[in-house]
């Protein structure tokens, strides 16, 4: 039998404490995984996972491929779909603490860095549903951790592992490329530029590029649709923000109480003696910020850069707390972060019934921006997009089943966005519906699901738009979803008869990459 003291110390070790934080984070997600409904983007990811390819209009192939594997192993329940995002969020908590350890933090500093991620609302929010962003957070954290080890131990061979992570990360989300751009800037502006003479850096870069090549070829063969998507989102969808507005939104999403910690992280990398060997990370942060500000990006895109700031800030905070008379600051700040995280938790994880949340939100007085140009609704976007989907499908089914069998065989169900189309595809079998069609993003590439149709049931389209293609248009129903986004709360459903021109001539004009 082992020594009880050894077993006790193992369960109270620095690593054990980080694991406890990570496991608690995962449990939090799993307990409330089904409290609301399925998220708009999850419906779209499921649809993409049924059409595997080397790329999509709005994403590389990693997330749909992984969801394909999840669906065929764990199933399509919300617990199954949200299992891996919860794991990703938990691992970022762990990796943030491990970064702090490599930078020189002791037990408290490591736990503080992990806690900052754990209470950061946007980390929790992104980790609560399936998207490429939850994996993006993880790949950034893994890459930065490897980079810290590389710089600390001067092990050039780690560029190979860094390149592997970057390659997988690029196949998940383009923002991994911004890490690469920031890395080049950081290497050029610091003594770490010596690594440009290492063959391992170039091999790692070549590996990442080779892994990303199939997606580049997909883009080429499809006319670079992602460039069109990014352009449209930048100028017609994303809400313009000044640099101060952008950073204020970032600070709010991260929990304002973490501001001193990540500001200390910036100081650590640029001005402290301990942080000088890792100054590359500071330049990665600034380069990433400059790119996002210049492209009118959403604030939450910036979030993957913050675990490394929390880690660096934790080193300085722990050192400052050792000074005479400052011992209280360690439990005091940790308790403040924990209490703040608990107080703002309902914004990140659906722990409250929806009506209770609305009262809570009005009491707090903070109404998060969606970062988009649509009209605000009673619920934050991330919650509003989890309501009304099956009800919407049920109403469409009533309209569809009101048609004669001969009419149903000639009917196309057309949706104005991928959320509606994804809902039809996900819930539709239960109601006897065929798959939906849409011009939104990758649905456009999949084409009309009934190419011989001369009738249509439209969801979310205006009467004038339907009349452009059909002679006879009648309002068949209206879907009422009080908690949904503004453009989904009173949703018209039209039946169009008398097609004015062949569907194959209409389809190119339905393209909506945004």
Give your account of this protein's structure:
- The chain is an alpha/beta fold and 514 residues long.
- The protein has 2 domains: 4-354, no CATH class; 389-510, no CATH class.
- The chain contains 25 helices and 5 strands.
- A 5-stranded mixed β-sheet has the order 2-1-3-5-4.
- Helix 22 (418-427) links the parallel strand 1 (411-415) and strand 2.
- Helix 9 runs antiparallel to helix 10 (175-188).
- The longest helix has 26 residues, at 78-103.
- The chain is globular, with a radius of gyration of 25 Å.
- The mean pLDDT is 96.
Sum up the structure in keywords.
alpha/beta, 6% strand, globular, five-stranded mixed sheet, 514 residues
**Which percent bin holds the helix content?**
55-70%
Number of helices: 25
Main-sheet strand order equals: 2-1-3-5-4
Largest sheet: 5 strands, mixed
Low-confidence stretches: none
Based on CA inertia axes, which overall geometry fits? globular
Run of helices and strands: HHHHHHHHHHHHHHHHHHHHHEHEHEHEEH
How far apart are the first and last residues' alpha carbons, in Å? 62 Å
Number of DSSP E strands = 5
Give the overall average pLDDT.
96
Work out the count of structural domains: 2
How big is the Rg?
25 Å
Proportion of residues in β-strands: 5-15%
Helix/sheet category = alpha/beta
Question: How would you summarize the topology of this molecule?
Answer:
Blueprint: H1 4-11, H2 14-31, H3 40-49, H4 62-73, H5 78-103, H6 107-119, H7 121-126, H8 132-153, H9 158-170, H10 175-188, H11 199-221, H12 225-237, H13 243-254, H14 259-271, H15 279-294, H16 306-321, H17 329-348, H18 354-364, H19 381-384, H20 389-401, H21 405-409, E1 411-415, H22 418-427, E2 437-438, H23 442-446, E3 455-459, H24 463-467, E4 470-480, E5 490-499, H25 503-506
Parallel strand pairs: 1-2, 1-3
Antiparallel strand pairs: 3-5, 4-5
Helix pairs in contact: 2-5, 2-6, 3-4, 3-22, 5-6, 5-8, 5-16, 6-16, 6-17, 8-9, 9-10, 9-11, 10-15, 14-15, 14-16, 20-22
């Amino acid at each position: 039998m082992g020594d009880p003291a050894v077993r006790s110390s193992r369960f109270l070790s620095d690593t054990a404490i980080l694991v406890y934080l990570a496991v608690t984070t995962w449990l939090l997600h799993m307990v409330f995984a089904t409290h609301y409904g399925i998220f708009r983007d999850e419906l779209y990811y499921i649809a993409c996972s049924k059409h595997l390819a080397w790329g999509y209009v709005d994403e590389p192939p990693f997330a749909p491929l992984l969801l394909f594997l999840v669906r065929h192993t764990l199933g399509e329940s919300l617990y199954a779909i949200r299992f891996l995002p919860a794991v990703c969020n938990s691992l970022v908590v762990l990796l943030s603490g491990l970064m702090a350890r490599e930078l020189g933090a002791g037990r408290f500093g490591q736990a503080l860095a992990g806690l900052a991620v754990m209470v950061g609302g946007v980390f929790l929010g992104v980790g609560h549903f399936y998207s490429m962003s939850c994996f993006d957070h993880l790949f950034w954290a893994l890459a930065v951790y490897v980079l810290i080890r590389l710089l600390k131990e001067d092990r050039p061979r780690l560029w190979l592992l860094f390149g592997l992570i970057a390659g997988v990360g690029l196949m998940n989300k383009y923002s991994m490329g911004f890490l690469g751009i920031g890395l080049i800037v950081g290497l050029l502006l610091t003594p770490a530029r010596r690594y440009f003479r290492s063959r391992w850096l170039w091999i790692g870069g070549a590996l990442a590029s080779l892994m990303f090549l199939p997606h580049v070829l997909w883009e080429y063969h499809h006319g670079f649709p992602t460039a069109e998507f990014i352009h449209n989102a930048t100028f017609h969808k994303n809400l313009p923000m000044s640099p101060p507005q952008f950073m204020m939104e970032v600070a709010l999403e991260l929990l304002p109480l973490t501001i001193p910690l990540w500001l200390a992280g910036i100081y650590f990398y640029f001005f402290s003696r301990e942080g000088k060997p890792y100054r590359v990370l500071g330049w990665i942060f600034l380069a990433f910020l400059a790119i996002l500000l210049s492209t009118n990006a959403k604030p939450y895109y910036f979030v993957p850069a913050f675990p490394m700031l929390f880690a660096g800030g934790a080193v300085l905070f722990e050192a400052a707390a050792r000074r005479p008379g400052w011992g209280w600051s360690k439990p005091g700040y940790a308790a403040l972060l924990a209490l703040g995280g608990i107080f703002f938790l309902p914004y990140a994880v659906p722990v409250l019934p929806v009506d209770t949340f609305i009262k809570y939100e009005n009491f707090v007085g903070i109404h998060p921006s969606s970062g988009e140009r649509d009209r605000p609704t009673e619920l934050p976007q991330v919650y509003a997009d989890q309501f009304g989907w099956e009800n919407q499908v049920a109403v469409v089914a009533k309209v569809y089943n009101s048609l004669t069998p001969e009419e149903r065989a000639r009917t196309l169900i057309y949706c104005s966005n991928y959320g509606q189309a994804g809902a039809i595809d996900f819930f539709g079998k239960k109601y006897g519906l065929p798959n939906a069609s849409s011009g939104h993003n990758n649905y456009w590439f999949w084409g009309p699901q009934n190419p011989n149709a001369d009738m249509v049931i439209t969801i979310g389209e205006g009467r004038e738009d339907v009349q452009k293609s059909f002679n006879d248009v009648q309002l068949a129903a209206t879907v009422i979803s009080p908690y949904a986004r503004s453009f989904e709360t009173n949703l018209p459903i039209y039946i169009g008869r008398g097609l004015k021109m062949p569907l194959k001539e209409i389809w190119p004009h339905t393209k909506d990459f945004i």
